[in-house]
User: Fold this.
Amino acid sequence: MALPGETLVYTITYSNQSSEALGEIIIFDSTPAFTTFVSAGNGALPASLLGVAVSVPAAGQAGVVRWTFTGTLNPGSKGAVTYSVMVTD
Assistant:
């Protein structure tokens, strides 16, 4: 149980378990009820992903967090993205 004012960190892992490269990769999530956005990031990108654009709500607001990748995700490649929220009431 988290109390108001505490920070929660969510980690979303992704992987390509197919035999083909994947393109047009977008990961998105929303801040949970009774939380507000703090920060977002991504770990090291697999070599075949060229970059990532992160779209987030303003700090202290609720909303969608979205990571849009450029390049492709090769078979067997994997990674992770994270975001933090603060518990409100």
Notes: The chain has no helices and seven strands.
